Amino acid sequence: QAVEAGPVIELLRQALGADKVPELGSSVRQKAADERETVLMFRNGQTEEAVRRKDANGTLQVVPGGYEEAVAQTAFLWRQRLEANRDRPDFSISVSAPSNAEAHDISLAIRQQRRTMGEIGPDQVTVKATDGAGEREYELELAVGDRVRLFRRTNAKFTETGTVGNIGRNGSVLEIIAVDGAGLIFRNGVGREGEVVWETLRDEASGRVQLAYGDALTTNTAQGTTVTEHIHAMPAGTKLVSAFGAYTSGSRHREQSFIVTSEGAERAEVIARRPLGDKREIGRGDLLNNIIRNFAQAPEKEAALALIDRAVGLRRGAVQAMQRVHRAAEARGDVRDQPSMLAEGLMSRRVAQAFAEILPGLAAQMRRHGGALAHVARIGADVAELLARLARRPLVTHQAEAEFWHRVGQRGQDLQDHMEQRTQMRRHGR
Predict the structure, then answer these.
(1) Of 63, 93, 392, 403, which is most buried by a Cβ count within 10 Å?
(2) What percent of the chain has pLDDT over 70?
């Protein structure tokens, strides 16, 4: 992550020592001192001050209306800033959004602006397309002048040399300079031109072309880019944007950045958090507070080893709890008193509930860790599954324990009724 070092760096620190891991303490992307200060505020957790600064200087736009209005305003702002800097050949502007769906819709709106500006010709082909994960499918109209993004490393036959080589990778944005039956001819960011055949672009599973419009990218894809100005657009609102997203998208620029969000989305979130029947008026201050709250979120990412430590701790606690209830059952058996199952049942329910709550998320997080941690994650998931089986396995060392594990699955209320019935019988016996 950009905001914090993240679990991989933490693993290196544990293995090598903090003094052995080099760090980049700061970067000087922004030219103006006030812009550097604002970016550092997002990075250092001074979210409220950073948001209020941008509201005061007009670079935070809460667009009246909903999703479509915010998309349209983002495209309008993109064109406005581009035309205001036409006399600067080195001027560049980019747009980022939280999700692929938002980035796609914004790119469509910017494409229409490009067409009215004469930068895109008539549509020449419509292809069935999909994103990199195969989660979204859509029709993609392509024309000369279109800017499209790649979802994987792609080779092309370069026109100037006739050789085959890499023209882009996942996240690269290329310009289409020709369309023919065999494929597309692209120009990449450094000016190299090459032809990519359709089969190279197709997803093996679906047969669809893996391309998308590239005028807006997701926050994750936009990491590492540097432009003159940047627009961080959130037409669906800031609800799913964390401190990581706010800082990453808010630090792509050298001169100026903009934040665009939907008033309707922010207002809906404020209403959802208020008590039912609360009819207080929602003002701009409430919307800003909602944005600040979301941008300040800093969810912690755990490494696979930390997850395994949690699983080990859970197992240790479960074993200790089982030992306590077994000792109590044996003590009651020694005095020829029928073992009471209420305490054991409640304890078992707590243990089972703890496992039920932690294990699905634990296994899911393990599966998400990849690369260097993939092997450790698989081991951790196996450990978690073994612990779950251990918690569910009945112990039958003697009759009292067999009865105990048989009753674990019964409802607590049934056990309580049983105890009350025994108490009443003893009273009558006296």
Answers:
(1) 63
(2) 67
Predicted confidence band of residue 11 (pLDDT cuts 50, 70, 90): confident
Q: Residue 345: what pLDDT? A: 63
Alpha carbons 155 and 144: distance in angstroms, whole number: 20
Query: What value does the mean pLDDT take over residues 356-366?
Result: 65
The Cα 188–Cα 156 span in angstroms is: 11
**Confidence bin at 2 (pLDDT 50/70/90):** very low
Give the bridge partners for 62, in sequence order: 261
Domain boundaries along the sequence of the chain:
21-295, 304-429
Spatial contact of 155 and 118, defined as CB atoms under 8 Å apart: no
For residue 231 the two structure tokens come to 């627009």
Which pairs from 52-55 meet CB under 8 Å and 24+ separation? 52/288, 54/259, 55/288
Separation between Cα atoms, residue 413 and residue 430, nearest integer Å: 26
Mean local confidence (pLDDT), 279-299: 92
DSSP E strand stretches across 240-281: 253-262
Copy the structure tokens of residue 183.
Answer: 């494929």
Residue tagged 């702002």 (tokens): 77
In sequence order, which residues have a C-beta less than 8 Å from that of residue 392 and are 6 or more positions away?
352
CA–CA distance from 260 to each of 96, 98, 99, 246 (Å)?
10, 12, 14, 12
Sign of torsion over alpha carbons 269, 273, 278, 281: negative
- Top pLDDT among 337 and 295 is at 295
Helices 284-295, 263-273: crossing angle, 10 deg rounding? 80
φ/ψ bin of 134: left (φ > 0), alpha (ψ from -120 to 50), beta (otherwise): left
Q: Which residue in 27, 53, 28 sits closest to 38, CA to CA? A: 53
Q: Are 144 and 177 in contact (CB under 8 A)?
A: yes
Average pLDDT, the chain: 81
Q: Which two tokens stand for residue 285?
A: 């201050």
Residue 26, CA atoms < 13 Å, CB-side half-sphere: 8
